[in-house]
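re the bet — no i am not wrong, look at it urself. input seq straight from the record:
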Amino acid sequence: METNVNSGGLSHEPKMAVVPRAHGLKDIVDVAINSSAPLRDLFARFGNRLMEELTLQIFHMGRMSIGELVEHCNRTDMEYPENSNALVFPSKRIRKGEDYLGLPEEMLRNSFCFGGINYFYCDTDMNSYNPSFMIAVYPRETISCRQKSDMITDFTWRKDLVPGRMPVKSILFEHENNHYLAVVPGSKKVDFISIGRQLGLSRSQSKRLGPAQSDPNEIIGRESGAVGLLMHPLGMQRIKGIFVDSELKTPYSKPYYDIPLDKRSALVVSDMDDLFCVLAQHANYPLIHLFEAQK
């Protein structure tokens, strides 16, 4: 069976259990939202249960079970020499808190030759991994959807293999001393007129809505470039409501929606409803409203 290393979801032989759609997602989200360094803490918490996509493909071709694969990776620690040109990026660096951004350009381009490195959550008890979401790690820090898309394209060695995924844009705005979050696909603009109508504002009042001038770190506990749905629990209490473009409710068959964890990584999900259901389990998570964004 053919496997596309850039699909964001693997085709594979049997031997794997079927897992619930959102299985493992709550564990990932809980660590991410409670951390000031989500990427580091996710790898520290889950270790080799976050398995790199290419590693899953290579070892599964040998019909190794998920349990055997995780045990093998724990034993070898998947460490590569400093001068290695291996395509598999050593996740141990991230768990140790080492800053891979300082690696030589050639090594970064070899390691991130598909624009980013995708990690899937593996469950050894169920002998499976969940293909509906993944952690994406990128070779550069970015603070906008355009920068991220350009960076992914720049690092992808064949332009016809650029990952088909949608960065999710999130904008903090305020009205009458209340803060809100607008969340739209990266290809769209936030329609403050539409949002204003839901807030009961006149058209002239709606036109005065715009990005907040406050430091997002002080509001939701996230720096610019990491503003989004995965806000710190204290930030949840400071957001009056979240306005989500209805297009984001369209499910896909593979991880597609790219939600920032920080400036160099993202949680990528195939169905935003899975994420919304997990986030709604947090008592203080803001109420979500749907609206139509501008194309």
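see?? Confidence is low (pLDDT under 50) at residues 1-16, 78-88. told u. also The radius of gyration is 20 Å. so pay up
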